[in-house]
Write a structure and sequence with these properties.
about 220 residues, Nuclear Transport Factor 2, Chain: A, 6 helices, elongated
């Protein structure tokens, strides 16, 4: 065996040794591979959130009508604590109906119709006006059109007596004429709608068996 062939065999053996060594360290790879990505740990949901309850949020039944945190809002909240079934929105709906009923009973001189809804001193004032009107031979012909505006202005609550007072500003629309004893129109126009502005305060003892609110003060 000549020296050239021997050198070739030696070089071939060295090449085979290097290839086997590389495979044992790197393994077999084809193409370009980036560093293997580690699995991302997904955070486990906090099961305690399933039981999380948001407390202390604003009561929309109150904040829809008065400013949150105001004295009136606190008074309305106290009314609800004294009587859990109390609803401000339902009260205002009832006040709208009471306004029409009381106003029209007064215009028509219906004393008996007024009595259940008025406090004694307010009833005395209404009754004296009706009596004076009748003494002059005057009558009123009125038709209620509707309530144009209704705003809760103020609410108060006396924790010692559980008495609640809510003041509402009304803007009502009606037609009204005043007639004398002969039936002649002495004031007003039956075809003209006029607006009447009133500020009324209703009161009631919260938690009592009597569900009726009574009118305790009037203004304009």
């Amino acid at each position: 065996m000549n020296s050239s062939l021997l050198q070739l065999l030696v070089l071939a053996g060295i090449a085979i040794f290097l290839i086997l060594k590389l495979r044992s360290v790197l393994g077999t790879r084809e193409g370009h591979e980036s560093e293997p990505m580690r699995p991302v740990e997904r955070s486990r949901p906090d099961r305690r959130r399933d039981f999380e309850v948001i407390e202390g949020g604003p009561d929309r039944d109150i904040t829809d009508h008065v400013e949150d945190g105001s004295n009136s809002a606190k008074a309305l909240a106290a009314m609800k604590m004294a009587e859990p079934g109390f609803s401000v929105s339902e009260f205002l709906g009832g006040a709208r109906g009471a306004y029409e009923m009381i106003l029209m009973a007064f215009e028509n001189g219906d004393v008996d119709g007024l009595r259940p809804f008025l406090a004694d001193d307010v009833m005395e004032t209404f009754e004296s006006v009706i009596s004076e009107r009748e003494a002059q031979g005057l009558t009123i012909d009125a038709n209620f059109v509707g309530v144009r505006e209704l705003t809760l202005q103020e609410a108060e609550f006396d924790r010692a007596t559980s008495e609640a007072q809510i003041t509402i500003r009304f803007v009502g629309e009606l037609t009204s004429v005043v007639r004398n004893a002969e039936g002649e129109v002495v004031e007003g126009d039956p075809n003209a709608i006029k607006r009447q502005r009133d500020i009324w305060t209703f009161a009631r003892e919260m938690g009592s068996d009597n569900p009726n609110w009574v009118l305790v003060a009037t203004g304009g």
